[in-house]
């Protein structure tokens, strides 16, 4: 034994290639066993050396990778051939050594036994389907594999299924991530207790072999890596290396799957520093190792990293500390610090001492420490492995291996630290990568596993400065793409921002780093460290400021921008992900009072950063014109932390606010955004292209609004509550550029705004003020109130589905904050405010989803237009909400007219923000309101109802929030007022309302009407002391200067600003100020302006009262209500919520004004008296008469218009009704006319194209618009009631043997085997599969009109959903899809009646006539237009179906084929109509199917063509049915096959052949004659089938019983007699012989009672009677009688004339009484049976099978689907395709037959047809219904087109989940499935589904 081993080590044996492989294997085992024994000895040094030497040889890395060096060394490992062989050999050796000579598989099993599987840890890659349960998850990233999920109990939980984007791992069993209640059965048991200890010798070999193996792998990685050349990436080379290493890495991966025991060995190997040092230092004498080490150093250097030895410059004094500033390197495999100590490994112990000696070098705050970015030192295999993993851009296999190890706790810690150590390097590699998407996913795949664990994140933060590293790395990353900011001062700006056009931002490359950062900030302990660390906060604010002001928009004033940049997507995404989400993460930890300090820190550094920013962009007090940026993250950080401080931490707001000057600066940019929004909506930015609208929408869109517009508005509210209100209000109007509009004069000049934009900008400014003053989102509403308000706003705009509501309601973006989608509060609020409308199914309509709609009381009390305006992305949604509100008020009778937005009382303000209401009580606002009211009253231009609405809203808000001290308003009049304020005496709205203003001096253009009146000189100054000089812009001169200098609002604002600044004593650069102000204020000295004085003499109250008159259109319409009822004032019942229009709003305001002040009340009364003195009725002046006439005329015109509209509507309605059921043209003319007047009247048709009506003629035929389609629906009928289920396990399979199509196929091929081909083709029908179905919408057109219509369609370039070249079009009238025109046969309507007179001819005469008529050759009519059309439509019918469905003959192209095809078309259409009627004719009547039937026309076309083929009278089956022939045994002519015996013929086919062979139109008595004759044959067939089905003794009994009665009078009408006769005739052959061998469908003999037999016979004959009755109904227009199911047979029989009229119904009905034999029954039966006898003598089996015809087919159904979609999904989404044996990317399953197919898969393509299209042709003759497994939707393929039908699986809220994006459980919706099935059966897919497109055979 020892000798062999020595030899192996010496290397003699393996180098003998001739040694048999098996010998070698044996040898390996022996060597391994020997080494294991040697190593087990106490003194194992010799063994160890031996093993080392062996491994040296086996795992020699000297062999270059691939066959680069020609592979001359490859024999060294004992395997000949290429390098691949050598590597395999090495692996074999390793496996053998690990197993210590035993069998490797047994070894694996042994190790698995010691697996304490507490964790699942299954690692998956992208696209894997996993589950997430929010009820069980502690971390938001929790995920479970499908197996663990289904084995746990999650009923009723909030879970969803998702497709992994980046890959992940299963958390089952990990209690730090999920609650234990959610663990699955396998991982519930804490199994560590009962798992035995691992025996030492089991894994001993692994500990020796694995270090060498891993080292070998690292050497390969070093060898294979070449720096990508500058010219292009060498990804190919990297991939090559990886492919070669595939087996090695897979081997490691398999080891990890052996369980915990093996993982801990691997952990020790990977983290042991000594091993690493010994093997990789490159100091040994091994040249190869040296070379490898050099390559490693080169790789480090080229990565921009240094090996610390060269880096001592960095001031870290002790070399032993490894010099990396992050002491990350000291992990040791099994040290006391990390896990159980394994004393056998002494070297490790020394290594661990290093840990205590290290000093950590703290990052100096604010400066970026180079060492984070540039230094790496590897001290263990794990570290170098990770390094190469990154270098090779995270190969999937390596990632999976590293992650598979994670269940080992010790490894997890070591690996996390290593990962953090390499973090900067990861970022650098990611930036350079060309595949950054894939790489990002792989990085996150790893990091999410590491950082989701709070304990671990905390440990790494403390020991490795995780936060410093992350922030620094992010900062570094962004620094690479900075550009100079152009905001404000383009030349001198010092601010830099990120460039959104860079790939880094455009491709979201920063995503993995930010996502990790957000993930660790969700842990409280980590976030607290961050918030405490001032240095970090400074760095972070520095990072955030890179985004401040990015993506600046400059308004294009001249031409349209050439190139619309789409960078704004990148900008919004960056702000949301990189700034806002970390902010929400931090905010979630600032919820309690104890955290005040954190808020102060953030606010402090935020303000510092803002101050730096203002300085950097040189901002003074005026924003630069025409630019806007939507990105102000610093403002938003500041705002959100303020809000949190007040709301949750009870901080005093003033303590965290800056001085006034800073507040003024802070408000400028958010206000600029609000004004720009108004400008964008006013189309002032239209030259910047659509993208600017996109930005405005994104800014308010639900995912962004609470990180963008909400903080902005909140910040403005804070500024407004602390700044001077006059200053704030004037700033608003100036920003919105409407200052010039606010003048009393009727004309003005606006220097900054075009006239067409003035109105919408004014609306914008007022709307903004309303929102600012009434929004309470951050000013005191609780979270639940906010949620409710948001939900109401969304529901009021439109009804919403549950998922869109979840999507539209802004939740805190941070996952750990309060509202989780689907959380308890969400559901409870939803049920409180909305009603659920279940999904509706309009047959033929669109599929509705389950919707939520607001409850009535919500409309009544909670509809809030302000919230709606704030949240609408599209302006039309505001209108939609108002329309719905109006409809509600009308419907509930609360308000009939056109309501205004309701006034809603707001929740009370938080005390900190009380100052906000001062805005409502400042003179500036009152002057604006007064001016606007006056302008509206005077009808100045550019004022809308919306403006008035907002003005009144503001006044009402002011009255609601007025200060109650009325005393001081009286006093304040005498107070020291500055002159320019003297419009109004005080600032309280209540008192200012009653203040009269008499004269105002305005500046107007010289053209203005005001100029002409020269005002008296006395007015120029303050007349009556009431004309105080206005402080309006351009309104009045300063009072003290006698000149008419206009006082500008803008200048006034400047002055305020100046005062404030001087007060705060900051020396502001005042030089700049005049410059900026000149730019804006209008040139006051412009020559064309002149001064005029207006006489006003109004107060706000008087204006309101006049407005009331104006709105109501009546004089003196306002009457103070308190004059009747004084109570109103004392306790005014002012509801919280008021509906109504402008009039009611004015009344409300006046009432509130009166109730708040006695003075107001008195003045209102006075005004009312003054305005309308009681006047005697005076004569109407001419002018007034004119206006009255005008009114009257208008009224009349309106009435006329209404009348016209009503008339039009009724016309339309009647058209719709007729269009919906157009009667079939023959019975267009009422019947009674025709009976009265016997002259012939022809059928008249309307052409829907040219509109003319007339008969169809030979030269100008009319046709029906029809759609021809091939159909296999009939073939899908089955004979059992139980519907087939969709297979959801391997056992369930569907076999198509029992389908109608299969049975008919078998029958035809059986006949063709034994009988003459041409005769076989007359004995059956085809078309069960691929039959042609013809349907019409009932509209007719001239065929020549149709041709020109098609021509115009051809030239029409519009994209149609159909192809005109294939003859497809839509009906010009009803737009129904069609593809052919079926000519109407010219002929009179009355013919029918002439032919229907009953004749008294005997049946024998009629039989002769029929025979003669059939014998006449059918000459094709002369070449007329009609006949040409008949021919072309026949061609269309043939081309509708594939050749294989038409050609059944053995001789291709034989006329019999066409003959068979034509009558089968008739059969198909009749059978399908029968199915549409539910499979029987009990309902009777001309049901809807009949109304639109085109069978009559179809019959004419078919008959015309069938008559061309005359059947030889020899072969005409009519003779066999009606004449007796002499029987000559056909035994003589053996070689020629016999004809099909008549008893084997299909009777319905015979019927159609007989009728179509007759000249049309057919006479009724001929028809009845044919039916009677065929019924005798049918009855005989029934008897024969019955006889075969019963047993021998039954047969003899019947034979005997019938024979006794044979001589009674009506023997021919007694089934017993006939049955016994049939039995006796048939028993002459060998038909009944081999009974013993096989009974044909034996039935229990006791069941053969007479009743049972009667039922059997009736059931056998019914299908024929049904088809015949339908045919009669169509040919002769007779209605079908309705009946009960049990009497269907007798009713149909009498309807067809089979039952004699005098038939008595007393005794039970017997089917035989319908028989009427044309020749003696017994003779003809003998003749028929004789044919069979001769056949059964040779082929008894087949003869019997052919006699038993299955006639009872059930209706066709689609497969039955399981209740829960998950069952389908789990089975099919991983199922392999039977054709290509791969798992399809897009699996689909056919709902008709259950076949599993690859959608769009090129794997299963055949001659350029993809599998779904192919299957649709084979299974449905061109119609396919497929369920797409991964999307839960159904697609329909119809010919060359396809459409998405929708889904039949809905979630609990009645919604589809297309593409399973939400992953909620889905349940079958039976109604939808029924609709789908109905459309399939009725062939109406084309008509009902609208969105069709071509599939180009690629599905």
Give a description of the structure.
The protein is of the alpha+beta class. Helices cover 48% and strands 6% of the residues. It has 73 helices and 30 strands. The chain has a six-stranded antiparallel beta sheet with strand order 24-23-25-26-27-30. A three-stranded antiparallel beta sheet has the order 3-2-4. Strands 19-18-22 form a three-stranded antiparallel beta sheet. Strand 16 (1245-1246) and strand 17 (1253-1254) form a beta hairpin. Helix 8 (204-224) packs parallel to helix 15 (381-391), helix 21 runs antiparallel to helix 23 (511-521) and helix 63 runs antiparallel to helix 66 (1650-1676). The two termini are 65 Å apart.
- Which band does the percent of strand residues land in? 5-15%
Structural class: alpha+beta
Task: Give the tally of β-strands.
Answer: 30
Helical content class? 40-55%
Largest sheet entry: 6 strands, antiparallel
With strands numbered from the N-terminus, the spatial order across the biggest sheet is 24-23-25-26-27-30
């Amino acid at each position: 034994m020892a000798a062999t081993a020595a030899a192996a080590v010496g290397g003699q044996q393996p180098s003998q290639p001739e040694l048999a492989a098996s010998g070698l294997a044996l040898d390996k085992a022996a060597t391994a066993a020997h080494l294991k024994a040697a190593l087990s000895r106490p003194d194992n040094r010799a063994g160890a050396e031996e093993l080392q030497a062996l491994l040296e040889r086996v795992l020699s890395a000297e062999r270059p990778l691939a066959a680069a060096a020609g592979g001359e060394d490859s024999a060294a490992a004992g395997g000949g051939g290429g390098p691949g062989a050598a590597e395999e050999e090495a692996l074999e050796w390793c496996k053998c050594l690990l197993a210590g000579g035993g069998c490797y598989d047994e070894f694996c099993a042994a190790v698995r036994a010691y697996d304490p599987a507490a964790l699942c840890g299954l690692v998956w890659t992208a696209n894997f389907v996993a589950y997430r349960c929010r009820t069980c998850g502690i971390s938001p990233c929790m995920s479970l594999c499908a197996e663990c999920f289904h084995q746990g109990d999650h009923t009723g939980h909030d879970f969803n299924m998702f497709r992994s984007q980046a890959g992940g791992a299963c958390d089952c069993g990990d209690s730090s991530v999920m609650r234990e209640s959610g663990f699955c059965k396998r991982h519930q048991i804490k199994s560590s207790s009962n798992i035995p200890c691992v025996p030492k010798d089991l894994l001993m070999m692994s500990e020796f072999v694995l270090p060498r193996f891993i080292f070998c792998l690292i050497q390969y990685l070093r060898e294979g890596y070449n720096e990508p050349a500058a010219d292009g990436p060498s990804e190919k080379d990297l991939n090559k290396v990886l492919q070669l290493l595939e087996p090695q890495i897979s081997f490691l991966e398999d080891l990890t799957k052996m369980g915990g025991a093996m993982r801990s060995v691997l952990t020790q190997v990977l983290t042991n520093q000594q091993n690493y040092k010994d093997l990789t230092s490159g100091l040994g004498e091994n040249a190869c190792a040296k070379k490898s080490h050099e390559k490693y150093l080169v790789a480090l250097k080229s990565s921009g990293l240094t090996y610390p030895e060269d880096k001592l410059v960095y001031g870290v004094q002790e070399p032993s500390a490894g010099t990396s500033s992050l002491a990350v390197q000291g992990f040791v495999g099994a040290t006391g610090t990390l896990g159980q100590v394994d004393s056998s490994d002494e070297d490790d112990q020394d290594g661990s001492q290093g840990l205590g000696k290290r000093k950590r070098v703290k990052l100096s705050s604010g400066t970026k420490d180079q060492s984070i970015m540039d230094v790496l030192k590897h001290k263990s295999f794990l570290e170098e492995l990770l390094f190469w993993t990154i270098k090779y851009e995270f190969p999937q296999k390596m990632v999976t291996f590293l992650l598979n190890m994670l269940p080992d706790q010790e490894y997890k810690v070591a690996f996390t630290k290593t990962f953090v150590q390499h973090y900067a390097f990861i970022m650098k590699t990611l930036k350079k990568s060309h595949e950054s998407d894939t790489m990002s996913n792989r990085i996150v795949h790893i990091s999410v596993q590491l950082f989701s664990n709070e304990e671990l994140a905390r440990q790494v933060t403390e020991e490795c400065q995780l936060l410093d590293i992350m922030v620094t790395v992010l900062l570094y990353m962004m620094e690479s793409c900075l550009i100079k900011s152009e905001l404000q001062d383009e030349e001198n700006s010092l601010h830099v921002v990120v460039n959104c056009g860079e790939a880094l931002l455009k491709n979201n490359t920063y995503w993995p780093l930010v996502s990790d950062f957000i993930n660790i900030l969700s842990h409280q302990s980590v976030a607290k460290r961050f918030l405490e660390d001032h240095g970090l906060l400074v760095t972070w604010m520095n990072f955030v400021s890179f985004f401040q002001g990015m993506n600046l928009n400059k308004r294009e004033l001249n031409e349209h921008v050439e190139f619309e940049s789409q960078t704004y997507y990148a900008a919004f995404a960056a702000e949301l992900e990189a700034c806002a989400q970390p902010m929400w993460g931090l905010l979630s930890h600032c919820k309690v009072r104890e955290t005040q300090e954190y808020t102060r820190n953030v606010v402090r550094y935020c303000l510092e950063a803002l101050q730096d920013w203002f300085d950097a962009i040189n901002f003074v007090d005026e924003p630069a014109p025409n630019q806007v940026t939507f990105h102000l993250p610093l403002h938003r950080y500041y705002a959100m932390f303020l809000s949190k401080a007040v709301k949750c931490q009870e901080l005093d707001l003033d303590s965290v606010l800056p001085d006034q000057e800073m507040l003024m600066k802070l408000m400028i940019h958010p206000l600029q955004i609000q004004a720009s929004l108004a400008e964008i909506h006013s189309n002032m930015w239209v030259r910047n292209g659509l993208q600017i609208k996109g930005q405005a929408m994104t800014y308010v869109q639900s995912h962004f609004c609470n990180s963008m517009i909400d903080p902005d508005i909140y910040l403005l509210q804070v500024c407004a509550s602390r700044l001077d209100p006059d200053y704030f209000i004037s700033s608003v109007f100036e920003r919105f550029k409407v200052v010039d509009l606010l003048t009393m004069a009727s004309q003005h000049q606006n220097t900054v705004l075009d006239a067409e934009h003035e109105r919408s900008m004014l609306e914008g400014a007022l709307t903004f003020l309303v929102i600012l003053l009434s929004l309470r989102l951050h000013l005191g509403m609780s979270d639940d109130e906010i949620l409710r308000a948001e939900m109401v706003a969304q529901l009021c705009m439109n009804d919403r589905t549950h998922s869109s509501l979840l999507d539209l309601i802004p939740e805190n973006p941070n996952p750990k904050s309060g509202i989780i989608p689907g959380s308890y509060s969400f559901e409870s609020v939803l049920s409180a405010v909305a009603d659920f409308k279940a999904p509706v199914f309009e047959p033929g309509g669109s599929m509705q989803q389950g919707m939520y709609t607001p409850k009535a009381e919500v409309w009544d009390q909670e509809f809030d237009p302000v919230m709606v305006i704030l949240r609408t992305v599209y302006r039309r949604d505001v209108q939609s909400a108002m329309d719905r509100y109006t409809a509600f008020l009308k419907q509930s009778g609360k308000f009939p007219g056109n309501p205004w937005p309701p006034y809603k009382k707001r929740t009370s303000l938080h005390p900190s923000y009380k100052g906000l209401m001062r805005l409502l009580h400042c003179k500036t606002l009152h002057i604006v309101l007064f001016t606007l009211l006056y302008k509206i009253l005077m009808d100045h231009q550019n004022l809308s109802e919306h403006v008035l609405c907002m003005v009144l809203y503001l006044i009402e808000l002011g009255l609601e929030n007025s200060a109650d001290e009325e005393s001081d308003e009286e006093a304040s009049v005498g107070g020291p007022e500055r002159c320019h304020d003297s419009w109004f005496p005080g600032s309280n709205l209540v008192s200012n309302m009653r203040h009269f203003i008499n004269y105002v001096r305005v500046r107007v253009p010289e053209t203005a009407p005001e100029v002409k009146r020269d005002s008296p000189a006395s007015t120029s100054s303050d007349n009556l002391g009431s004309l105080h000089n206005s402080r309006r812009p351009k309104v009045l001169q300063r009072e003290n200067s006698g000149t008419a200098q206009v006082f500008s609002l803008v200048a006034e604002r400047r002055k305020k600003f100046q005062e404030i600044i001087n007060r705060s004593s900051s020396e502001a650069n005042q030089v700049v100020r005049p410059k900026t102000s000149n730019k804006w204020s209008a040139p006051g000295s412009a020559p064309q302006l002149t001064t005029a004085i207006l006489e006003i003499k109004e107060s706000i109250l008087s204006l309101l009262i006049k407005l009331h008159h104006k709105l109501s259109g009546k004089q003196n319409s306002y009457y103070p209500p308190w004059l009747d009822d004084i109570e109103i004032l004392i306790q005014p019942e002012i509801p919280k919520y008021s509906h109504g229009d402008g009039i009611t709003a004015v009344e409300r305001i006046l009432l509130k004004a009166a109730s708040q002040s006695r003075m107001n009340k008195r003045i209102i009364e006075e005004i009312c008296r003054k305005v309308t003195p009681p006047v005697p009725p005076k004569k109407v002046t001419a002018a007034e008469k004119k206006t009255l006439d005008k009114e009257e005329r208008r009224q009349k015109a309106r009435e006329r218009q209404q009348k016209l509209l009503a008339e039009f509507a009724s016309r339309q309605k009647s058209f719709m009704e007729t269009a919906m059921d157009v009667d079939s043209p023959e019975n267009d003319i009422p019947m009674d006319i025709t009976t009265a007047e016997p002259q012939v009247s022809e059928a008249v048709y309307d052409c829907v194209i040219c509109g003319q009506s007339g008969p169809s003629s030979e030269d100008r035929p009319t046709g029906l618009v029809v759609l021809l389609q091939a159909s296999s629906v009939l073939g899908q009928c089955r004979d059992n009631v139980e519907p087939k289920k969709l297979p959801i396990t391997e056992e369930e399979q569907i076999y198509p043997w029992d389908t109608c199509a299969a049975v008919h196929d078998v029958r035809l091929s059986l006949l063709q085997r034994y009988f003459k081909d041409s005769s076989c083709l007359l004995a059956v029908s085809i078309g069960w599969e691929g039959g042609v179905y013809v349907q019409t919408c009932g509209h007719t057109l001239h065929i020549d009109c149709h041709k020109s219509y098609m021509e115009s369609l051809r030239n029409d370039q519009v994209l149609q959903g159909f192809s005109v070249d294939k003859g497809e079009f839509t009906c010009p009238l009803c737009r129904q899809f069609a593809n052919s025109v079926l000519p109407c046969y010219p002929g009179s309507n009355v013919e029918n009646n002439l032919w229907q007179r009953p004749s008294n001819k005997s049946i024998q005469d009629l039989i002769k006539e029929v025979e003669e008529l059939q014998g006449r050759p059918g000459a094709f009519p002369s070449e007329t237009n009609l006949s040409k059309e008949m021919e072309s439509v026949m061609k269309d019918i043939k081309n509708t179906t594939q050749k294989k469905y038409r050609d059944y003959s053995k001789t291709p192209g034989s006329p019999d084929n066409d003959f068979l095809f034509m009558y089968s078309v008739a059969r198909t259409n009749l059978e399908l109509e029968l199915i549409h009627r539910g499979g029987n004719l009990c309902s009777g009547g001309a049901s809807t199917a009949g109304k639109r039937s085109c069978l009559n026309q179809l019959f004419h076309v078919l008959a015309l063509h069938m008559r061309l083929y005359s059947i030889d009278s020899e072969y005409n089956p009519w003779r066999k049915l009606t004449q007796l022939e002499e029987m000559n045994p056909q035994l003589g002519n053996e070689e020629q096959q016999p004809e099909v015996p008549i008893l084997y013929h299909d009777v319905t086919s015979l019927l159609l052949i007989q009728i179509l062979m007759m000249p049309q139109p057919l006479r009724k008595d001929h028809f009845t004659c044919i039916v009677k004759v065929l019924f005798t044959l049918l009855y005989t067939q029934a008897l024969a089938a019955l006889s075969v089905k019963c047993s021998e003794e039954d047969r003899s009994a019947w034979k005997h019983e019938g024979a006794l009665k044979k001589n009674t009078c009506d023997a021919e009408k007694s089934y017993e007699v006939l049955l016994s006769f049939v039995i006796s005739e048939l028993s002459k052959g060998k038909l009944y012989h081999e009974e013993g061998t096989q009974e044909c469908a034996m039935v229990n003999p006791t069941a053969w009672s007479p009743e049972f037999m009667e039922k059997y016979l009736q059931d056998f004959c019914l299908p024929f009677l049904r088809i015949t009755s339908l045919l009669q109904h169509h040919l002769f227009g007779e209605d079908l009688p309705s009946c009960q199911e049990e009497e269907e047979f007798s009713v149909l029989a009498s309807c067809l004339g089979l039952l004699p009229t005098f038939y008595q119904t007393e005794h039970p009905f017997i089917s035989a009484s319908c028989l009427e034999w044309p020749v003696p029954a017994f003779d003809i039966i003998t003749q028929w049976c004789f044919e069979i006898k001769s056949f059964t003598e040779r082929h008894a089996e087949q003869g019997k099978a052919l006699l038993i015809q299955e006639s009872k087919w059930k209706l066709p159904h689609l497969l039955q689907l399981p209740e829960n979609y998950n069952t389908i999904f789990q089975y099919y989404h991983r199922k392999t395709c039977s054709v290509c044996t791969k798992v399809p990317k897009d699996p689909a399953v056919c709902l008709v037959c259950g076949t599993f197919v690859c959608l769009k898969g090129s794997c299963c393509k055949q001659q350029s047809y993809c599998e779904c299209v192919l299957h649709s042709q084979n299974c449905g003759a061109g119609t396919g219904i497929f369920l797409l497994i991964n999307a839960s939707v159904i697609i329909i393929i119809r010919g060359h087109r396809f459409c998405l039908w929708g889904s039949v699986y809905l979630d609990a809220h009645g919604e589809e989940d297309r593409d399973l994006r939400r992953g909620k459980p889905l349940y079958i919706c039976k109604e939808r499935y029924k609709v789908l099935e109905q459309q399939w059966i009725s062939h109406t897919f084309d008509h009902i589904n609208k969105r069709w497109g071509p599939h180009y055979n690629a599905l």
